[in-house]
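Lab notebook, bench 4. The sequencing result for the construct came back, and we need a structural model before the next group meeting so we can plan mutations. Quick request posted to the team channel:

Model the 3D structure of this chain.
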Amino acid sequence: MALDAADHAGPFAALAQRLLNLVLFVTALTSSIAFIEPSPHDGLMIVLVVMCVGAGVGFDRKLIPLLLLTVLWLVGGLMSLVQVGDQAKDIQYAGTSIYLGIAGVMFACLFCDGDLRRLAMLRRGYVLAALIATAAGYIGFFHLLPGADIFLDNDRVSATFKDPNVYGPFLIFPIVWLLISLLVRGIRLLDVAVLMILLGGLLLSFSRGAWGHFAISALVGVAIVLAVTPDPRMRARIVVLGLFGAAAMVLLVVALASIGSVHDMIVERAKAIQPYDVGPGGRFWQQQLALNAILDNPNGLGPFEFFRIFGLQQHNVYMQGFLVYGWLGGAAYLALVAITLVFGLLNVAVPTPWQYYLITAYAVFAGEAFEGLIVDTDHWRHFFLVLGMVWGLGAATINFRRRQAYDLDVDEDLLAPA
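Done. Here's the predicted structure in token form:
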């Protein structure tokens, strides 16, 4: 739709749209290179913002709640930052929050017209990025090249990320994308092969949070697809394919677990409680301290102050919100997550050309919101991507529904398959 509108506006506008989509693809492609800061992805995000301005990407009024809550979250963080003094690390943390907040709103604007070409470019770039990261993970775990240990963190795969607990969740978006595509469009051997590769990479992250995140996102995604599919035969096919898919995943886990090092790590990581979870100084004990600190500090503590005082992170993004961004920022972040879940749920059932993109983004966001209970996710780049997609495609869905209600013509190009 955006590209066709640009075509009518003139060749330069159409060229700007094509360049914007190309920059989006390259930005997504580099999103897995996260072991250095600033990363190439961060630099390209600046270019992407400039391209959005140059291509005339607009702001839909339905994105105002996203913008307002993001601003309140950031303002709370800046108010909390004042009390920690002039420390470069704290200022960098606040700068990263501002950068990611802008990114979330920018992605919402990028997708609020439901442009399928743009969505397809994002999908291809992200899947390729996930394959690059996964390949690095396999090389590291199985020691396929000299010096491959740089892709490991305590025998767990971190791949091109600093932390296995970030690498694992990064893979879930393309995994759920491929899973829903297989259920809806049928078996495609290339999609199956890529899905199995990425699932193996997710397993080797040995991240319990990522495993739980995937389980929730997959269940939410499949449940919504079943609920919105009107054809009983199609629903039956989805159920059958889903069962086959679950069986294939089990076989993949069994095959990998037959490798001694993988088996031992799975057994260790599958334990519900780890030594660092309980007892004095453990995760749950720290969360009790964090709750007391939140109640005692309405303006928060500022970045890294809880760790400096107590020696460990609380590993809960919602507590992190109040500790680092104060009551104002913490409440805004909590409201942003809750309202996004409601906003997305109100729109996923509407049949649109981009419906399954929205379902995927919503399912991944729901899983990531859950994972936030045990991990600090406020600086995960892919969190703000799916956040923006839920809002952008939700706004596009509302506009689509209104056009139908007023019997306006729907752009036939939108109905082309992705």
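The mean pLDDT is 87.
Will bring this to the meeting.
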